Amino acid sequence: MSKDVAIIGAGQSAFVRGYAGSIRELVFEAFREAVRDAGLTPGDIAASVVCSAPEYDKQRSPAGLLAEYLGLNPQPCFTVESLCSSGTTGLRVAYGLIKSGLHDIVVVIGFQKMSEITSAEAQERMGRGADIMWESPFGSTMPAYYAMHARAHFARYGTTEEDLALIRVKAGKYGKLNEKAVYRKEVSLEQVLNADTVAGPLKRFDCCANADGAGCLILAGADRAREMSPHPVWILGLGSASDSMTLSGRRSLDGLNCARVAAEQAYAMAGVGPQDIDVAEVHDCFTIAELMAYENLGFAAPGEGAGLIREGQTYLGGKIPVNVDGGLLSKGHPIGATGCSQVRTIVMQLRGQGGPVQVPGAAIGLVHNIGGVGIYGNVIILGR
């Protein structure tokens, strides 16, 4: 396992439905927490990577704005986007900047202030994350896309609505304990199954909510990490892949191939396998997305992911605890911030700072972050 780059600081704002301040202030909440966590000052940071999906925020070129506000001038600043996986794409860029020797300490900032536009406008922009010639003009939306994946999984493997509902019940159990989550209450199986349909078979509780939020990660090369941090968390493996933007170009709809390929790369780089992962954060924008992740990441064979949630194996104490911070289904999904929040959760777990949802003895963690409907996929493996 390579231990060349580590995460030495992590921070996150609360995820909320309508943040009253500016994007500067929103990002500062996460940045301040990460800088204090790392025990450094803005002057120690050699470069910044800002991750934000375009057109939700009114500010053009946010990297320059945030570098000024956070005291990061005249260091270089970059903007990175890959839709919902922007945060982990930014981490991959920062890793490369450090490995190349260009910079020794790099900050990754992910954010989104989605409340600056209406829900209808947000849905329209999400639709334009697909092909604007052959798909989005026909009214495709994110719930509809994932509903098609759910139907395909149901048809091929016999998965049921109750299997998906069990995932949402788990999210509520752990989201209740997460002080930074939008939704902090449990839901019953009956509530999930009897909720209004959004795009059949997906119902209201099967879908995550838009949110405003920010996340921040500080990365350092090995020498600086050991010098500055009492508990660096090492980046052991990175995988990244893509797939056709149009669903008609996909081999199948019962899984996300970009996630499978990215996972294979990350496992190979880290020299581990699915059986070695102690805790995982997966991209559960919809309940079916978490179920597919179980299979795409190798935690279960194709078609057997539902067995994990039925048997409680993805709960604390199970074979592979997944989304013990409540996931996107409870935390909310501020697009550019999501990946950074997922990484922060695993960092806290590997430090033994997970509080009431700590996985005992967690030494290796995994983050699975998807952009769009499986257009982009990032998998990151972290270790103590």
From TrEMBL:
Which InterPro entries does the record associate with it? Answer: Thiolase (IPR002155), Thiolase-like (IPR016039), Thiolase_C_2 (IPR055140), Thiolase_CS (IPR020613), Thiolase_N (IPR020616)
Q: Quick one: a GO biological-process term for this protein?
A: lipid transport
Question: Example GO molecular function term?
Answer: lipid binding
Where's the Thiolase N-terminal domain? Answer: 5-205
The segment(s) forming the Thiolase C-terminal domain are 239-384
Report the Pfam families cross-referenced here: Thiolase_C_1, Thiolase_N
State the PANTHER family in the record. Answer: ACETYL-COA C-ACETYLTRANSFERASE, ACETYL-COA C-ACYLTRANSFERASE
What domain of life? Bacteria
Q: Name the source organism.
A: Desulfotomaculum copahuensis
Stored CDD domains: SCP-x_thiolase
Q: What is this protein called?
A: propanoyl-CoA C-acyltransferase
What is the E.C. number? 2.3.1.176
Per UniProt, the keywords (alphabetical) are: Lipid transport, Lipid-binding, Transferase, Transport
